[in-house]
Amino acid sequence: MKNIGVLNYLKISLQHALYLLHHGMLEDANRNLSQAETWRYGEKSSSQEILINLVQAYKELLQYYTWSQKKMELSMLDEDDYAYSTKTRNMLSHSWKTSVHICALVKIPGVWDPFVKSYVEMLEFHGDQDGARKVLTNYAYDEKFPSNPNAHVYLYNFLKREKAPRAKLLSVLKILHELVPSHKLMLEFHKLLRKSEKEEHHKLGLVVLFRILDFAGCTKNITAWKYLAKYLRQILMENHLAWVQEEWNSRKNWWPIFHFSYFWAKSDWKEDRELACEKAFVAGILLGKGCRYFRYILKQDDQVLRKKIKQIKKSVKKYSVVSPGV
């Protein structure tokens, strides 16, 4: 391989190792990375040093894979068993050696998701919560690193495991919301906002739900529609009509076709009647009883959902933001 070009040897070795990893040839990949790790040509440049770090880190990632398998085996042993304590000592030693090069790599600005996750897992296994928190915080907030939604996901999950205060969890998810409004954690963000005592958080909770449903990939998310239906009823009961109008004004020209057309009413009723009922309530609240989606669902006869449909009709009549008669 060295005949291909000495200047590109490290890159080619790394690409070859990734190919081997992709095809499950772990031993061959490890051997390839070990050879590349010891190779030098001329004076070490900064770019060459980064590649060497990357080669070493991928080698450590392979060792992490072995370590994680041992960790799985450990979880199946009785903690009082002698074999448990022996394996634990071996794993502590192994993880310490494995994490050295990964630690160096994740300090270099870049996107290092698999390395950060494995490194943090090993730090947590060591009981080094402070170290793990520091790594994740730097990865998420250091301005030298590129914007990366996953960094905030990892930090949030770590803080959640630590049972961190709600304020900390909210601050992390708020940034994630700005980066990826449709992320699956946004429903969790909404629930945390709803539990807050601050009115601004309650208002943001509504924004979060509307923004989730702005995305085509979320149109069938029944949980999001359930949350929105329930929350609309709640905030209208609390006389926050202005909040609803503020969100609806920027969507009233495209949401009716995007979500509440006659086509979608028929399709949703056929595929998921529970979803159709939640959407019908939201449609009635936002567009009034004249909405075609709302009217179509109300005309359907379903013994199981008959009571629910009657409740929807009653609630829409009471809480719709559209003037009566429209």
TrEMBL record:
Signal peptide positions are none
Gene Ontology biological process: transcription by RNA polymerase I
* GO CC terms in record: RNA polymerase I transcription regulator complex
Sorted alphabetically, which InterPro entries does this protein's record hold?
A: SL1/TIF-IB_Component (IPR052669), TAF1A (IPR039495)
What Pfam families does the record point to?
A: TAF1_subA (PF14929)
Its name, as the record gives it, is: TATA box-binding protein-associated factor RNA polymerase I subunit A
Q: From which source organism is this entry?
A: Castor canadensis
